[in-house]
Design brief:
With 134 residues, the protein is mainly α. The protein is 59% helix and 0% strand. It has six helices and no strands. The longest helix is centred in the N-terminal third of the chain and has 19 residues.
């Protein structure tokens, strides 16, 4: 996608739209069964960031944090989007009544793998409910 967009005369806002509305959903579909590290995801989307920097007239050393600001670009962070997608899919599995046995098996497997004495979902958090966070 970056190779196709590089020679085109596009505004930075169009590149942002193509990144958010076209590239990320396609990647999300292809990566729905695998969760890669943040560095791997960043290496996948890095060419699009370099095109965006060039189209916006920014220096190549512009920090990525500037691109993720709401104004003027509002680019979505690919890793956090994929992570939230994975969490949402697992939440659907664990809350669906047909997958209750699988969910209990997965929790007990993780509990044994992590060496936890009790499952985190059954820990009583009532004593901590009155704690005020700073």
């Amino acid at each position: 996608m970056a190779a196709l967009l590089s020679p085109k005369k596009l505004l930075a806002q169009y590149v942002v739209y193509l990144y958010n509305a076209v590239l990320l959903p396609r990647l999300e579909f292809h990566l729905q069964t695998t969760l890669f590290s943040e560095s791997t995801i960043q290496s996948i989307v890095k060419p699009m960031f370099s095109i965006l920097r060039r189209k916006a007239g920014l220096a190549a050393t512009t920090p990525l944090a500037l691109l993720f600001l709401k104004l003027p670009f509002s680019i979505q962070n690919a890793f956090y989007r994929f992570l939230s997608s994975h969490i949402a899919s697992w939440q659907k599995i664990f809350t669906h009544p047909d997958f209750k046995d699988f969910a209990l098996y997965a929790i007990s497997y993780l509990q044994g793998y992590l060496g936890a004495e009790s499952c985190p979902t059954i820990i009583n958090l009532e004593p901590w409910s009155q704690v005020i966070s700073l």
